[in-house]
Amino acid sequence: MKLLHRTTRDFLSATIIILLVTGIGMYLLLQKEVTDEMNEQLAFQAALVGEQVATGQSTGYPFAQVTKTMDLVETPPIYGDTLLYDLVQHKKEDYHYLDLVKRIGSDNYHIKVMTTYIGWGSYYKTIFYLLLAAILLLAASGVLINYFSNRKIWRPFFLNLENLKKYTVSSPAPLQLQSSPITEFKELQAALRDLTDRSHREYMALREFTENASHEMQTPLGIIQSKLDRLSQLDVSEEMARHIVEAKSGVERLNKMNKSLLLLAKLDNQAFEGKQSIALQEVIEQHLLMMEDLFAAKHITINTRLTKATILSDPYLCDVLVSNLFSNALRYSGQDGMLNITLWPHQLILANTGEPLDFPSEFLFDRFRKSSKNIQSTGLGLAIVQQICLLNDWEISYRYEDGQHVFRLGF
Amino acid sequence: MKLLLVEDEPLLLEEMESYLTEQGYRCEKATNFEEGEDKITLHEYDAIVLDITLPGGNGLKLLELLKKQHKEAGVLIVSAKDSLTDKLTGLELGADDYITKPFHLEELNARVNALLRRKSFSGHNRILIDDLVVDTAAQEVRWKNDIIGLTKKEYELLLYFIVNKNRVVSKQSIAEHLWGDHYDMADNYDTVYVHTMNLRKKITAFTGTDYIKTVYGMGYKFMLS
């Protein structure tokens, strides 16, 4: 629910309740006031009628009845409402009456005086309509005020929200925030700025650490590798040879992982700003040429439909992207598989046959995520692909359909 | 051929020196910036292997110095950073090639070899093994007068073997040399095997000599009889 709707709703319900209470209160008070007033008037009339009877005059009041009664006691006045037929209007009218037995001289008289009044129904209607009009006016003004203040007061808030949605901690530019005269928004902005600055600093420190750690590892890895190569030159027993080869493959995995990590760490800094226009079909053809014997060894058929596509990217990154996608296809196609490569001016589609993923596809581009069947891989190749796409504002998506892994790259 | 190896890591330097010496180069060493500066200024080298992260200064500065003095030496930059900026700066400053740590010594040797071949103008583009001629300019291999028809990959592989003759070359090192380090090694060893066997058959068919030996579990060795 939007804030505007929420405040308007609360405001409206409060308005309606207050006005209802006011309305009912008004109705009751009016009723009481009017009744008291009429009762006074009737009592005064009754008193006058009594006077006239005492002095022997006939009563000149249209709605007064005076009759002698055999009642022996005086009764206190009784007030009530009654309906009388109006001969002129041909409908029944509301009347208020006073009924009492009074001793005048030596006789007891029964006196009843009446007066007409506007029916409560009309009061009720009038009040209801007034209140309804008030409710509508209040609601309309509330919505309008909310709407305009929403546009004005909340404008910086919404702009900042948009900026915040777009903000990534890895971007070098600080978060852009619109200023606002509202204290609460000012505080929010200060807090946000503080938060993003801190996150960015921590992120940078972490990235630097990754980069330095990977970097520092390169030399010791080089030593291990060259020493293992040296050991291979000696006359060793079969058993030792096996151990050396296994150690080498471990070092090799470390190597690859390290290089990938270094690349990932560098991908989101300013290291790759040299964008050039690149003929993507040529890059693809070069890689296919280089890898053809690797695909052939696994009997993977490659079908290509390449149209010319020119993209803007750092050439090295473009190379890494294509090579990682192809290596991935090579690794997961399986024997006798098929790889279809389609290139349109703004889209590259790679579809390779293969077993479905053994984990949810939304994790496919995560770092260190790999199929349990392939412990050899670093699990960083597709993470690098995704980072490169992010850096170049390209879209990459993955689907599994008809027994094929389909990667779609839009640029 | 005289080489200068500029590298601050003693173990790595020792490995480089011993292997390149085995391959017939005369090697001199420098372990920091000043030493490198002195040696570059005082002596002439055919090629310099230059690590760019050195104690006492950046190796790229040494490269500038070398170019200022109009020295003829070919330069192979070594870096622990797989950084394109370093690479481009290095190549712009006049380096001939660039290799990233960690590397196989066979790869380093092959690069130095190629660099020297490119540098020299006098018919160094032919390598002779008995009657086997590898013409690196035409990229073809002849036995006496017959051309041995090799695929591009087989040719590269043969050159790699010959340059690193009498050394056990691992499948890993071969795969990296042939396909760069972008590709998945686990799958490539079979391919290395296939290429090596094909090459072996072709060479043996022409020469009658089986130069390429399989070293159990380790890789292959190009042996001179």
From TrEMBL, chain A:
Matching SUPFAM superfamilies: ATPase domain of HSP90 chaperone/DNA topoisomerase II/histidine kinase, Homodimeric domain of signal transducing histidine kinase
Reaction equation(s) it catalyzes: ATP + protein L-histidine = ADP + protein N-phospho-L-histidine
EC id: 2.7.13.3
Protein name listed in UniProt: histidine kinase
One CC-aspect GO term: plasma membrane
EC class name: transferase
GO biological process, one term: cellular response to phosphate starvation
Species this chain originates from: Paraflavitalea soli
UniProt keyword terms in alphabetical order: Kinase, Membrane, Phosphoprotein, Transferase, Transmembrane, Transmembrane helix, Two-component regulatory system
Coiled coil stretches, renumbered: none
Limits of the Histidine kinase domain: 212-411
Pfam families the record matches: HATPase_c (PF02518), HisKA (PF00512)
Matching PROSITE patterns: HIS_KIN
GO molecular function: phosphoprotein phosphatase activity; phosphorelay sensor kinase activity
Keyword Chaperone in annotation: no
Domain of life: Bacteria
Keyword Phosphoprotein: yes
Membrane-spanning ranges: 12-30, 127-148
Automatic annotation (TrEMBL), chain B:
Gene3D superfamilies attached to this UniProt entry: 3.40.50.2300, 6.10.250.690, Winged helix-like DNA-binding domain superfamily/Winged helix DNA-binding domain
Regions recorded as binding DNA: 124-224
Domain Response regulatory, first and last residues per copy: 2-116
Superkingdom of the source species: Bacteria
GO molecular function: phosphorelay response regulator activity; transcription cis-regulatory region binding
GO cellular component: cytosol; protein-DNA complex
PANTHER family: REGULATOR OF RPOS
Protein name as catalogued: DNA-binding response regulator
Source species: Paraflavitalea soli
Lineage, broadest ranks: Bacteria, Pseudomonadati, Bacteroidota, Chitinophagia, Chitinophagales
